[in-house]
Amino acid sequence: MSEPEHSRIDRYEPTAIEPRWQQRWAELGLHDTDLTDDDRPKFYLLTMYPYPSGSLHIGHWYIMTPTDALARFHRMHGENVFLPIGFDSFGLPAENAAIKNKIHPRAWTSANIDKMRRQVRTMGATFDWQSEIVTCDPDYYRWNQWIFLKFLAAGLAYRAKSPVDWCPNDGTLAREQVEGTDRHCWRCGARVEKRDLDQWYLRTTKYADELLDFSGIEWPEPIRIMQTNWIGRSEGAEVVFTTAADEAQPGADEEPSGREPDGDVPAGRELRVFTTRPDTLYGATFMVLSPEHALVPKLTHPDRAAEVGAYVTEAGRQTEIERMSTEREKTGVFTGSYAVNPVNGERIPIWIADYVLAGYGTGAIMAVPAHDERDFDFARKFGLPIRRVIAGPEVSDAEVSVPLEEAYIAHGTTDRMVNSGTHTGLPAKEGFASIVAMLESQGKGAASVNFRLRDWLISRQRYWGTPIPVVYCEMDGIVPVPEDQLPVRLPETVDYEGRGENPLKSDAAFVNTTCPKCGGPARRETDTMDTFIDSSWYWYRYLSPSYSSAPVDRSIEARWCPVDQYTGGAEHAVMHLLYARFFTKALADVGLVHEREPFKRLFNQGQILGADGERMSKSRGNVQDPDEIVSRYGADAVRLFLMFMGPWDQGGPWSPTGIGGISRFLNRVWYAALDPHGVEAGDPESGALPANQDVAAAEKALRKAAHKTLRAVSVEYAELRFNTMVAHLMELSNLLQRYRGTAVAGGAAWNEAMRLMLLMLAPAAPHIAEELWSRLAEARGEVPRGGEAPRGGDVPRGGEAPRGGEAWSSIHTQAWPAVDEAAAAENEREVPVQVNGKLRDRVTVPIGLPEAELERLVLARPKIVAALESKTPLKVIHAGGKLVNIVVR
RNA sequence: GCCGACGUGGCGGAACUGGCAUACGCGCUCGACUCAAAAUCGAGUGACCGUAAGGUCAUGCGGGUUCAACUCCCGCCGUCGGCACCA
After folding, report:
1. What angle do CA A564, A570, A574 make, to 5 degrees?
2. What is the predicted pLDDT for the residue at A781?
């Protein structure tokens, strides 16, 4: 700023202003929501609660500050806004820190939360801290246990065996703890194995169909598609094959594995497969089981046991992603056994291959190489027969046995069935129903719906999570811990012994207990719950954080749910957001809540990456700490800068180079507000109106700009398009700058534009807006509410405010202004004129000029005459008065 | 690999429903102010040709639809997110 100004008025110093207003807002209770107030419409605004990883990074600002702007925007519309916050504080990093630094997970977590709470406060965000929740508090996780017991009673929780990645030294490993292509343990380097453990599941699949229904919620289409694909509903049939009798089959006495000598004769055993293409059943030339399939040991011929055994072990080392890749070369081994195709009695070989997954369908497939790409590749590689059973009209009957060059996947309406016994000649689209009917009549199969979605495995072999509230009794088996004995507390002293394995297992005081049923000795479950459980219902707990008879007070839930707007990272598009929907439906079914969908509207913002374009992480050393930039430019500038850098759902690499522009913008608003008559020493034009404008025209132009800005900005806030919202405010600021020091400055139109400017700025940059609002209020002769100046003594004040002045009130309690449509109205429009789609001229015409007149005017323009080169227009396109395009040849 | 998104000046991005490509900001250049510098203010700034008027080209690449395509369709390439024990 120039020297004269410097001496006349205060500089804009955000760090002097911001803490003062943050404190003042807290005193005013601006953040605290009265959940029982039903005079105003409610607006439940939820943002994904942070994991207390250590300290706040710029990504947290990116998530939270635009959300706060939205909260403030809705408050100005008279809504009762609830914006809670908490900490998602169970999880692996706390345990990793514990192992590494010999610090208790709780101590580490608590210290991080304390630090992050302080840092969050510097945002100036209006979080309601009264309703804060911390998921590792027993007061929170007891309700995880309570809910688990309700689910258990309702049959929504069950126990089953499931493989985990296992290190002989460190126990179960999380995916991120398995490293390298050889899949070794991150801590000790040992080769990771698979081990089957009894674990707890939640029955998410029960809700598969309901989860596919998004009617009634306004979620972005990409998210709906991703969830739909994740659930992966497919209609098809289950087909029963039977194992073939054959002298080459191993008999009952020579079980190759020796593990299940139960005397079953493999011949005649049922082998169920799921297929989406029952119409191709006659083309099944072999079967493939997943390496983990229960019948593999029984079906393996002794000659092949070594090969099969090796293959099964190797398959266990692969990740599912590797196994599903359609790109890499197919692998597999023959078991030595055969199965019988139920429709034609054909004997086909049974193979195992890793591209068949145990967790999908029945873990076994019928392979139809002619009509499935993966089966085709497999058959090609291992020399298995390929038989066409579906043909398009371009294939004659004589050609149906010509070898295929690639799998024929198409399923057109003109396709017909070939090589299909009694079905040959039938239109292919009828084959599905026809073959299913035949199978059903013979008891060899039935129509079936299959989902890719699996039940949710919630057991974790870890300390830092919610203990699963069951005990194991020799007499009574699995016994739920009675509700009145909740919470099952995590022991506070644990010894990690430098190992990664769950220390609960070796904690005798925790493990040894008595059976609630018989009073005899029993063991506690030592597994804890997946932390996604915590985040699957936390927005309910916010509503009644100290309610002691249930997770949530149903009367408050009824009023406040569903959440009106949820904001959070796109990386949660599937898992968290699907679990949350599942939980809501399940909780509704056990009678805890009313709504079946948790979040009415969803917005997934993008991720802020490190300066290197990579995800921010401590190990990469690219984490951006906001504190320094906030102390230099102020919270308002950082908030605005994050909103301005691009569409909110896009994210991007962090680079602070442009923040100076935001800072300049705020400074210009500051001086325009406080010193409208100042002139710019460096600008010879400063203080003079544009040559073609008088005061009246300038005031009209300013009012028009202000109200047009308001119209745009109102929509942009509501639609979370903050980047263009800021751009529009900058444009208005540029116009104010143009008129600063002129006869317009300080007049009625100027004051109106400035007032609108501050109101529009208030949600996004709340401190400077409040400060200027307050100072202009004093200038208007209003007195602060409560008789005390809302700012410190650092600014000279011109004595007492006059008595009888209107009471000052926070800008954040003002009503959002209304657009003056008359002021914003345009009466002229500049119409671009094209010849053959190329811009040749522009004409300014009155709004509503008839097309015929516009056309006459346009065709007379010298530039257009020249461009037409005396050719006759074929057609003149009027794009609704927005553009004229003259087509010539 | 599968699912989803994205690709526009030197950089972040705008163009919302097919209708003026490059709003707004950064950076850069020049100028004003200053003894000077910083800061501030003003002007300019897609590329190429041209003194200019003006013209041609340009939204990842290749095709297509249309009077008109950043936008719609087909096929590629690249980047990012998710893939069920990171949260």
Report:
1. 85
2. 64
Residue A560, classed as helix, strand or coil, is: helix
**Confidence class for position A799, pLDDT limits 50, 70, 90:** very low
Q: Which residues pair with A166 in a beta bridge?
A: A172, A193
Q: How high is the ipTM of this complex?
A: 0.96
Q: Which long-range contacts (CB under 8 A, 24 or more apart) does A795-802 make?
A: A795/A10
pLDDT in tens, A33-61: 999 998 999 999 999 999 999 889 999 99
Cα torsion A85, A89, A90, A96 to 10°: value is: 150
Average pLDDT over residues A308-327: 79
Give me the helices (H) in A762-800, please: 766-779
Contact between A713 and A728 under an 8 Å Cβ cutoff? The reply is yes
CATH of domain A143-214+456-529: 2.170.220
Nearest to A16, CA basis, from A792, A808, A798, A811: A792
CA-CA distance, A286 to A294, in Å (whole number)?
18
Residue type, A800: E
| Strand ranges inside A498-598, DSSP E | 512-514, 521-524, 528-529, 563-569
**Which positions ≥6 away from A185 have C-beta within 8 Å?**
A167, A169, A170, A173, A177, A178, A179, A191, A192, A500
Neighbours of A357 (CB within 10 A): 16
Instruction: Find all residues with CB under 8 Å of A506, minimum gap 6, and list them.
Output: A495, A497
**In angstroms, how far is B84 C1' from A176 CA?**
13
* Strand B contact nucleotides, protein CB < 7 Å: 1-6, 11-16, 19-21, 23-27, 31-33, 39-42, 55-56, 67-69, 80-87
Encoding tokens for residue A319? 């990740």
Q: How far apart are CA A222 and CA A572, in angstroms?
A: 12
The 10s digit of each residue's pLDDT in A252-263 is 444 444 333 343
pLDDT score of A250: 47
Q: What is the DSSP string of A132-172?
A: EEETTSHHHHHHHHHHHHHHHHTT-EEEEEEEEEEETTTEE
Between the CA of A671 and the C1' of B29, what is the distance in angstroms?
28
Give the CA A692 to C1' B52 distance in Å.
27
A33-141+534-627: CATH topology is Rossmann fold (3.40.50)
pLDDT in tens, A651-690: 888 888 889 999 999 999 999 999 998 877 666 666 788 7
Count Cα atoms within 13 angstroms, Cβ side, for A129: 11
- CB burial readout A781-813, b (16+ within 10 A) else e: ebbbeeeeebbeeeeeeeeebeeeeeebbbbbe
Contacts of A9 (CB under 8 A, 6+ apart): A671, A674, A675
Query: The CATH number of A659-822 is which of 1.10.357.10, 3.40.50.1100, 1.10.730.10, 2.30.30.60?
Result: 1.10.730.10
CA distance A515 to A474: 9
Provide the 8-state DSSP code for A819.
Answer: P
Q: What is the CA radius of gyration of chain A?
A: 35
Assigned token pair, A524: 């506690």
The reply to whether CATH 3.10.20.590 applies to domain A826-887 is: yes
Residue nearest B69 (alpha carbon to C1'): A837
> Which residue approaches B82 most closely, CA to C1'?
A571
Residue nearest to nucleotide B13 (CA to C1'): A646
A720/A643 Cα distance (integer angstroms): 9
Q: Dig out the tokens for A334 from the structure.
A: 């023959």
Extents of the domains making up chain A? 33-141+534-627, 143-214+456-529, 233-451, 659-822, 826-887
Largest pairwise CA distance in chain A: 110
Using the structure, give the distance in angstroms from the CA atom of A530 to the C1' atom of B86, rounded to a whole number.
12
Q: Which CATH class is domain A233-451?
A: alpha beta
Pairing label, strands A470-473, A477-480: antiparallel
